[in-house]
From TrEMBL:
Pfam families: UBA_HYPK. Residues 35-49, 80-101 have a biased composition (Basic and acidic residues). This is Nascent polypeptide-associated complex subunit alpha-like UBA domain-containing protein. Residues 1-101 are annotated as: Disordered. It comes from Salinomyces thailandicus. Residues 101-141 form the Nascent polypeptide-associated complex subunit alpha-like UBA domain.
Amino acid sequence: MAEERQPATVQEGMDAPEPPATDRAEAKALSTLDAKPDDDAGPKKDLDMKALNAAMQNLGGSGGEEKKAAEASTVPTSKKKTEAAEATRKRAEEEARRKAVRVDAGDVGVVAEQLDMSKAQATDLLRWHDADAAKAMKAWITAAV
């Protein structure tokens, strides 16, 4: 069996690379939160607040969600309401259009049998794809891959 090629910077016997200093500082700050305080010890003054704040922000993920939420809160509420109403209206129109699509019972049977799904699911899939069985099956298979 062929061996997997390694990058040129990796050599046999090397230790794992050291994490960046910021990661170490964040890990140390987080570990101090888990430590049980001693009754004899006074308050910890050497806690790196900057590293602790960075670590706490990274706990939620990439931090991008908070930034997006903050940016979204700066948009006027009237604009938000208008956008939400427009999106709701578009969804309702799309749903009404989909419900109006006539689906052949034979196509439903073929799609349900070939894709191993219920007839209700096959009907919905066909409605999403304008009652075109070939298009619906291609889309289902492509989405599964």
